[in-house]
Amino acid sequence: MGRQFSVTTLTILYCLLGAVSVVIAAAWCAHYASYQFIKNRALRERKWDYNICCGTTDGGGINADIMKHGEVPRFELITDVTKLAHPDGAFEHVLCSHTLEHVPDPEAMFRELRRIGSHVTILIPPLWDFTAALQPLEHQVIFLTMKSRHENRLPPFIRYWPARWLQAALGQRIEADSLADYSNTRLRQVADYLMPLGFSASAVLCLQKQPSGFVLFGLACLLLWASKALRF
Known about the structure:
The protein folds into two domains: 17-42 and 182-232; 47-178, Rossmann fold (3-Layer(aba) Sandwich), CATH 3.40.50. It is built from six helices and eight strands. The chain has helices at 2-45, 106-116, 130-133, 161-170, 186-207, 212-229, and strands at 48-52, 60-65, 75-77, 91-97, 117-123, 141-143, 149-151, 157-159. The chain has a six-stranded mixed beta sheet with strand order 3-2-1-4-5-7. Strand 4 (91-97), helix 2 (106-116) and strand 5 form a beta-alpha-beta unit. Mean pLDDT is 87; it is low at 177-183.
């Protein structure tokens, strides 16, 4: 009886850790596709006359943000994303990447972007990038769309009230392009790319009921912590 209980408990643990590993690895892949692959492809496709909330990226024209996150050329400091110091139709191509979900009134910001830009491209976290779309410490709205890129239109959204209450108590966290500039965060980069591999291997081993799956799960958790906490 006791041995049967131990075997059943161990099987449940294997299934649980395997499922958690699959979810984390899938979430990393979705987030990479949304925040890195799609974003970098957009940045490379043309010169962006106005790259608002640029973080550490260079769009080729004016790079604007509410604070300076890194060394970027032609930087413009802005104080209000709903009142930009440029005349109507000042720019042909405007890029706004992963910003509208952070502001309390996306419609007001989007109207301002349409005022200064003839063609406005926005990138937002789609619902399939669920760890970003439901980020409670940074985002104030949830966009109800499966597309990351939108041209000259703002997709429907709902106000993320639990996140707003949490941010009112703890403050809103803004981490611009945490994976974009690794000039001083090489170990963090290594940890970030090894982490999904570790969880994927852990999922396979747990599926096969191999004890080494537990070890790999622990190492992958350590890599997950390092990918968020390291600053070198």
